[in-house]
Request: fold
Amino acid sequence: MRLSSMADYAVVIMSAATRHSGTCAHHPEDSRLSRISAAQLAEDTGLPAPTVQKLVSKLTAAGLLQSTRGVGGGLKLARAPETISIADIVEAVEGPIALTACLEQGKHECTLEGGCSVRPHWPQVNAALRGALAQVVLTQLVEEV
Reply:
């Protein structure tokens, strides 16, 4: 199993935004006040600007980034980095974390669906996978190794 390129890039973008976050002299308790532009994120990560823009839109819609227009505008983390998990980022880009499509509403692609003995157990597997990804938060990804 592998993350899609877009989910991988979203994690890279959120990590870059986290590294950019600093403290503001007026609000030292809030490390989310530093803003960065999508162009800066593209430059910092080496990702194409259109890809960054597309992912920034998804991450903003999911409430992980906050976007402000105008002078002093830009992007900032919408929540503290220690509260944003890899699961949150992957779900913002890919939707619910699941190893199989058979549990999704309206998906009927499997020929075994009617009599599959494994299907009732997939929610437990999916929950375990999501739980593992939820254990890793952004602050862990920006620590020096």
Q: What stands out?
A: The chain is about 45% helix and 5% strand.
